[in-house]
Write a structure and sequence with these properties.
about 240 residues, alpha/beta, Nucleotidyltransferase, domain 5, five-stranded mixed β-sheet, about 25% helix, about 25% strand, globular
């Protein structure tokens, strides 16, 4: 039996769930921006009290490793590493885009979302990477990578070679801003889809069973791009 704490903070969503043998036991999440530092430990504490667990009870802690927001990833990974290192609990890292694809597959299988011929479509989770750039990867219906993670700038010619022969399902906050750019009958856009720790559950359970653990002392998030600090324009002359 594997009791796992799942942490997702790679985007604006702060999400924590507890799973037992790949079945979710409880979840807390918020989409309020810039609250990860405040809410993450509160959500963990609330779930532990609600489910009557202690940190020492967990067999592993899983964290969404990115790509995504630099600050969000730092908060989630630092919290997970701290708990694992202090309590000598194994650390599991889940690719954020893979977890998103897993969440979409679960929704398609349960018919929460329904499309014709979705089993032969390309699943394309996307995370906003500012301006017209997105972090994305391709997956098949089994949740397997068919193209690795990339940071790419999207224009009207993007993916046309694939769209000419196959449907592509775009989802995540990165897909919202390209909806008006990618114009093709085989391009399907799913709105209001965000990363969530509940999409990590089956992946973290599988990783635990396969002993796929990270070094809690040295693990770093998968940023994909270097962090670039910016100064808000309104403060330039203050």
């Amino acid at each position: 039996m594997a009791l796992i704490l799942n942490i997702e903070t790679s985007t604006t969503v702060c999400s924590v769930s507890v799973s037992l043998n790949g079945i979710i036991q409880g979840i807390r999440e918020s989409s309020e921006e810039k609250t990860h530092a405040k809410l993450l430990t509160i959500f963990i504490d609330q779930l532990l009290k609600e489910l009557n667990y202690k940190i020492d009870d967990f067999d592993a802690i899983a964290v969404s490793k990115g790509p995504g927001s630099y600050t969000g990833l730092r908060i989630g990974v630092s919290t997970a590493k701290g708990l694992c290192y202090a309590k000598d609990i194994p650390l599991i890292a889940i690719n954020t885009l893979q977890a998103m694809a897993n969440g979409m597959i679960l929704r398609l299988k349960s018919k929460v979302i329904s499309f014709d011929d979705f089993k032969n479509s390309v699943l394309v989770p996307m995370i906003d990477a500012r301006r017209m750039e997105v972090y994305s990867a391709f997956f098949n219906f089994k949740g397997e990578f068919t193209r690795d993670v990339k940071a790419e700038i999207i224009d009207e010619n993007s993916y046309m070679d694939i769209l000419s022969i196959q449907k592509m399902i775009f989802f995540g906050d990165g897909s919202e801003k390209i909806r008006e750019i990618i114009k093709h009958e085989n391009a399907i856009f799913v709105s209001n889809f965000h990363p969530s720790s509940d999409s990590m559950v089956s992946l973290s359970e599988l990783a635990f069973q396969n002993n796929e653990f990270e070094n809690a002392a040295y693990f770093e998030p998968f940023y994909l791009k270097d962090f670039v600090a910016t100064i808000p324009r309104k403060n330039i002359f203050k």
